[in-house]
What does this fold into?
Amino acid sequence: MAVTRINIEEENRRRRRINKIKKIIICLVIVCITVPTALSGLLMVKVVMLEKELEQLRAASAKTITAVNEQTGEPNVTDMIMGKEEPEQNGELYEVNDVDQAALDSEIVNNTDDGKRKVYLTFDDGPSDNTDAILDILAEYNVKATFFVVAKDDEESIRKYNRIVDEGHTLAMHSYTHVYNQIYADMDSYQKDVLSLQEFLEEKTGIKPVIYRFPGGSSNTVMNIDVQECIRFLESQGITYFDWNVSSGDATGNGYPASTIAENVISGTIRHDEAVVLLHDASNKDATVAALPIIIEKFLEMDDVSLLPLTEDSYPVQHTKKQ
Ligand SMILES: [Zn+2]
It folds into this structure.
């Protein structure tokens, strides 16, 4: 009898254990089914949202790139390289840091009053043998641009400064010497470089420029001085500085053809409501001159773009902000 009771109790315990295991298995099965189902649902929603976003981006870029390729007959080049501002004068070469494209892209501004994107074509390092050709093209299309110039005291250069002013473009300052290790040696040299150029241009044209671009950009890495001190100095003089958020790539030393320079500019400006485009007015940059009509014609075809010269009131695209 005792043996049988023990067997029954043993059997009951075994059943309870089995039932418990069954419950655990059922719970596990339910969890295994519901969690992946819920996650799949979430992922599906995410995929749909991303697909929509991708479609919008594709439509925007296809519209522009196709139009550029129609004109250039070139394959699509997506190799967008932000510019290295290349010192032209005196044959001195200093490496200038690459611009943080992601940071610039994240700075999407939207303060256009007429709903149009503003594109500012800017030319550094002139005057040069190409200045007249650039001005001829701008005149042909009745487009105004900005020239960040250096000091050149010959008769031809003085005529070119005046032509820039007379034809309604913005005459802006770049550097008196454009020799980096002199400009940025110490604050005295820096201030002297800026003020000498301002005085020189006022004397030659009657216009006192108040717009400035740091040689190498405000993000250059060759300065021996504190950029914030430079910025405070510029501000004390009523001078506004502009960097760029679109580079044509015409100074990267890769010898891009005109079609690539044009495509870099067009595709680069899509991301910005206020696009400041870096180009160069230099004797060895014929490709920039050849790219200019392609660039202008493309922008003129776009209903939502205004091509403008920089003014003190333009949105200040700056790599280094005042702290
Ligand atoms: Zn320069």
Q: What stands out?
A: Residues 59-98 have pLDDT under 50 and may be disordered. Strands lie at 117-124, 146-150, 170-175, 211-212, 240-241, 246-247, 274-280, 305-307.
